[in-house]
Design a protein that fits this description.
Blueprint: H1 2-33, H2 36-39, H3 41-65, H4 76-90, H5 93-102, H6 105-110, E1 116-120, H7 139-146, E2 156-161, E3 166-173, E4 178-180, E5 183-184, H8 186-204, H9 206-216, E6 229-231, E7 242-247, E8 255-263, E9 283-291, E10 300-308, H10 313-336, H11 338-344
Parallel strand pairs: 1-6
Antiparallel strand pairs: 1-2, 2-3, 3-8, 4-5, 7-10, 8-9, 9-10
Helix pairs in contact: 10-11
Keywords: Membrane, Transmembrane, Transmembrane helix
InterPro entries: HotDog_dom_sf, PTE-AB_protein
Length: about 350
């Protein structure tokens, strides 16, 4: 009986070994039948995730943090970009509307002059010295060349209302004038607003109007299009004596913006009583930088206020005499009729 039990145990062990061997062989055959993707699904998923994160990080670095250098002004690549920018700015709805205003059809029917006009730059002329060599440009021209091209202040369209003394300009801010990645540098914005306010002040002055009146009077200049145009003042406009800026929203680069310049509102209050006190005389202009594209069209990004001193010494003398006369007449009345002043008060 014991012998039979021993045999039965050996048989059971043999059966268990046979079954385990068969199951292992079946498992190995099933594993061998699976594809490579099925066997390494987890590893492949982690590899793809790591590659995707690396590609996203590299793209962000190469396009935002450290983008490739933009083409230099005057190169073939820059010429292609400039041609595209000129086409885009001419197709802007605001530019089309302003050029429509420059036609001045209503004023022509009434026989009136003035109205909107497009400001075009003066024709460039090369400076050649006695040896027949082209002279190097001045410092101002070098600065303009540094900001030229599609990477800087590539293209712009400037319009001027001769009646209301309002200036509207559609400008382009390129990628090379960005301080923070993708955001236009505040200094470039301040420079552009300063130039536009100075241009408006120069156009509004009598001297500037005399310089450009001959080109501004015809509503259709031969060879320059079918709307009113006039050349910008040849003389460099003077810089403002005071300038205040308020950066409201970030100004993204590689986009078009609109600049509006208009005379500041005249306050009824005496400038000497305004806190902080303002000097008597001078001319103030207000400017805004607004979005022209996207969902936030018309949103103000930057506000500016500039004060210009009277242009000529005669104007400064007149303003000084006016301020002195106003204060001197009040003092004279108090000295001449003190009792009457007290009784009236």
């Amino acid at each position: 009986m014991r012998r039979n039990l021993a045999l039965s145990r050996q048989q059971l062990r043999y059966i268990d070994r046979a079954q385990s061997t068969a199951s292992a062989a079946a498992a190995s055959r099933a594993t061998a039948n699976k594809s490579f993707l099925s066997r390494n699904r987890g590893r492949i998923a982690w590899i793809w995730l790591a590659g995707l994160l690396g590609w996203m990080g590299g793209s962000f670095t190469s396009h935002t943090i450290s983008p490739p250098p933009l083409p230099a002004p005057g190169t073939r690549e820059d010429g292609i970009l400039m041609a595209d920018l000129n086409q885009r700015i001419d197709n802007e709805f605001k530019v089309k509307v302003l050029r429509g205003k420059c036609l001045g059809v209503a004023r022509l029917l009434k026989g009136e002059e003035g109205g909107w006009v497009e400001i075009v730059p003066q024709p460039s002329s090369s400076v050649v010295n006695g040896k027949g060599e082209v002279e190097a440009p001045s410092t101002g021209k070098r600065l303009a060349d540094a900001l030229a091209g599609a990477k800087g202040l590539g293209v712009q369209r400037v319009f001027w209302d001769r009646g209301e003394h309002q200036l509207v300009s559609v400008v382009w801010f390129g990628g090379s004038i960005a301080g923070w990645p993708g955001v236009t540098h505040g200094g470039a914005i301040a420079t552009e607003l300063t130039e536009k306010t100075a241009l408006a002040a120069s156009l509004a002055s009598d001297g500037a109007l005399l310089d450009v009146s001959e080109a501004a009077l015809p509503q259709r200049m031969p060879g320059t299009g079918d709307h009113a145009k006039m050349f910008a003042p040849a003389a460099t406009p003077s810089e403002p004596s005071q300038l205040s800026l308020s950066y409201v929203k970030p100004t993204l680069s590689n986009d078009f913006y609109i600049i509006r310049v208009s005379p500041a509102l005249i306050l009824d209050q005496d400038p000497e009583h305004i806190v902080p006190s303002e000097t008597v005389g001078g001319h103030e202009w207000e400017a805004t930088l607004e979005k022209i594209n996207g969902k936030d069209v018309g949103q103000i990004c930057v506000k500016a206020k500039a004060r210009f001193e009277p242009g000529s010494p005669a104007e400064r003398a007149v303003d000084k005499i006016k301020g002195t006369a106003e204060g001197g007449y009040g003092q004279f009345k108090e000295w001449m009729w003190p009792s009457r002043q007290k009784s009236s008060s």
